[in-house]
Sequence to fold (363 residues):
Amino acid sequence: MQAKRAKRQEQEDAQEEVTEVAENVLRMQLPIVIPGLGHVNCFALIDDEGAAVVDPGLPTPGSFKALEQRLGQAGLRMKNIHTVIITHSHPDHFGGARRIVEASGAKLVAHGTFRLGYQKPEVSVDDLHAHECADHAPVESDELRKPFTPETPSFEGRTPWGGDRPRPPFKMRMRYRLMRTIGNAMRFPTITKPVLGGDVLRLAKREFIVVHTPGHTEDHICLHDPAEEVFLAGDHVLPTITPHISGLSSHPDPLKAFFDSLDEAAATPHVSTVLPAHGHPFKDLAARCEAIKLHHDERLEKVRSIAREIGPASVEAFTQRLFKKHSWGTMADSETYAHLEHLRILGEGDARMDKRGKLIYEL
Ligand SMILES: [Zn+2]
Ligand SMILES: [Zn+2]
Fold:
């Protein structure tokens, strides 16, 4: 009989308690309903004018109420929020922005390439099932610094590898449907202050550098404060789970982008406190980046060995050997596709379209 593993820290329920995790930086846990995750950390950066909040949770009334309650503990009210910062385009990070902007008139900060995309899972397909058993650079120009309102994404069409559009595994489908309904019903507020890597934001009475870290999403940013050695990591680097890397990306090689961003994070000097969007603060950013890279290196090695075993095959055929049966589906295919494309772009193989319109990989 298989022993039930302990809950991972990213899956713990949101605690009401507000903690000061660095000078003028408060951790406020908000409840989320997302497969594989139990809370999202919204960080309040306090200064003389009030507070900036990073990643204000889902667009649900419950999340908004929890945020009000957490702010209250710190002697703050919604109207004291002068800035909302979104690390990336996933609903547990941007969802609360509209209500806050309406209540406070806060300015809204996100990367200049921010786009509402497909509903992607937050964490690697393996991690989703841990318990349930369940050299391209974005154009960085002045254009990207102009305020804009993101459009609602479409879910039509086929995937680049010839499969259906994302369809989460059976057990999660209902929850994803709910998320999608929430997402579609929501008008997105205007991003009044788009930022790019290297920009400096005055927060918590000191300067934070914007670090652009494409991979988990192309628009992902982290915030680095060299003075107090704090690194707000968003979903780029999580303490015990690996973020989902989707092949459904505008980046030709999202896995390469993710590796590069991990290297950049690992090489950042003056980091002693890492504040992830899910799970607890931790210290060694470089070590965690290395561990996540190792996980993907091992997966790439497995893809190579599957190719030797089965010869030319579709993305789905690779998925079925790479993942356990309960994980099969478009989400897993998307991760497989990202790994196959990475190897193809490295020059380790080719892909051709067969008569059914499916990509066949030969490594
Ligand atoms: Zn995410
Ligand atoms: Zn997240």
